[in-house]
Design a protein that fits this description.
Elements (H helix, E strand, L loop, with lengths): L12 H17 L6 E6 L6 H13 L3 E6 L9 H12 L7 E3 L8 H12 L1
Parallel strand pairs: 1-2, 2-3
């Protein structure tokens, strides 16, 4: 499987194919995955690469959540609307939860951990 332009611009075509095969094998054959956390940047619309990875995740059939990181980098009054817009772009039917998050300031972490804990218990 080829991952053209998936942030691997310094990789040869053969290396890109190897990475694509690794991702595919990992997602489809790993038995102990209980939840995939798809990390995207809340400040930007999903890129073609984000959509490609999202499609890999969806095609795996595994439970997942979208984590919109860097929520501390936008105004707090815009976070909810931005998360809704990201979800609408990636998952318009809304069956995959999308959460804001800030790894730097640790804001919004309670809702995220509550959701993750449901899969770990």
């Amino acid at each position: 499987m080829d991952l053209p332009g998936y942030g691997f611009s310094k990789m040869s075509k053969k290396e890109q194919e190897q990475v694509g095969k690794f991702i595919e094998e990992y997602l489809f054959n790993r038995e102990n995955i209980v939840l995939i956390i798809f990390l995207i940047d809340i400040r930007h619309s999903p890129t073609a690469n984000d959509r490609l990875m999202y499609n890999y995740i969806i095609s795996s059939g595994l439970p997942c959540m979208i984590l919109a990181n860097k929520a501390d980098k936008i105004a707090i009054t815009k976070v909810d609307d931005t998360v809704k817009a990201l979800q609408k772009e990636l998952n318009p039917i809304g069956d995959i939860p999308t959460f804001p998050f800030s790894s730097e300031r640790k804001i919004y972490k309670d809702d995220v951990w509550k959701f993750i804990d449901e899969f770990l218990n």
